[in-house]
Design brief:
With about 150 residues, this protein is mainly α. It is built from six helices and no strands.
Length: about 150
């Protein structure tokens, strides 16, 4: 299997090895996704120290709560979502919100591009239906996110 962040089967295998206690798999997840998480997080906040702390906390939590974590469908999106939650949690703790309108727009564009890339990979009729559902859902619920 090819090693890239978009190969779902490969990363599920790495995730299962990590859940079984393989430290090399944990290191591989960190090495593959840490830079992408930093790029993603920098679209949410301009506080780079906070961002670094959140990424570190994310991987500490992954390691610490390994047995209790469910198997994510897509590891990359699980990590993005977890990082976003940690950043928001940090904002709430400090009562300081450094999210600008420009950051929110960049974040929305980032997710739209990720969604487009993800949906391009689907070829079956079932997944075409999923695409229609996502498009309908995104337009229906777009105003609730930001």
């Amino acid at each position: 299997m090819a090693k890239d962040s978009g190969n779902k089967d490969y990363w599920q295998l790495v995730w299962f090895k990590f859940k079984a206690g393989d430290r090399d798999s944990f290191e591989e997840i960190y090495n593959e996704f840490a830079d992408n998480l930093f790029a993603y997080g920098s679209k949410i906040t301009t506080d780079l120290e906070l961002l670094k702390d959140c990424i570190q906390d994310l991987f500490i939590d992954l390691y610490k709560y390994n047995p209790n974590i469910k198997n994510p469908e897509l590891l990359e999106y699980y990590l993005y979502k977890s990082l976003k939650r940690l950043i928001i949690k940090s904002f709430r703790k400090t009562n300081v919100c450094k999210v600008s309108v420009r950051s929110i727009i960049r974040l929305r564009l980032f997710f739209q591009q990720k969604q487009k890339d993800f949906l391009k990979n689907f070829k079956t009729n079932k997944l075409k239906c999923f695409k229609k559902y996502c498009k309908h859902w995104m337009t229906r619920n777009a105003n609730y996110y930001f």
